[in-house]
Amino acid sequence: MTVQKSAIIFGATGLVGRHVLRELLNNPRYGKVTTVARRDMNIKHAKINQLIADFQTIEEIKDQLVADDVFCCLGTTRKKTPDLQEYYRIDHDYPVALARLTKANGAKALLVVSAVGADADSANFYLRMKGQMERDIVAVGLDRTHIFRPSLITGKRSEKRRSESLAKGLFTVIDPFLIGGLSKYRSVPAAWVAKAMNRAAEQEHGGVRVYYWKHIKNQL
Asked: How many angstroms separate the CA atoms of 195 and 80, rounded?
């Protein structure tokens, strides 16, 4: 009989995180799925274990952050978090801290959503932040680290974003022309990213892997 694994999802209330939660609850490989969020998600399921915490309180529950696989789908926006220090703390410091805490508790794999163009030395604040997050998570040294670098992520969000709606319309037009090396800039449905993360977690190879649009699509 196959021993079931356990998983933790950070950011399960977000666009990608909600799809990841659905994937894992439907995956027989997982017997327990822990979510960490700032509020009760009001979801009832035999597998689910909900923990309430944020960056300020995560240390209080660190002993409960035990799982084989860790899915990090955290992220905010400049509009929601105009303070750049706070933005950096949410999108860089929090994921890196989670990687360290979960590794200390025995986690073997970490799967994290980053962004296309992430570069620790970029002149662009957002891309530099994401690149530094990737760099520092890799330095934590889990057995397996899967980094997902989507471009525009599409799907139904809980809040409306006018700029994102405009971008989605633009990408509908330009996506077919983004071929070859440019395909990594294509928009990608959140459900695709979640499915790819679920599939990637099944791999047993060690080291670091980076996934762009074509790699995400190939995991479907």
From this structure: 27
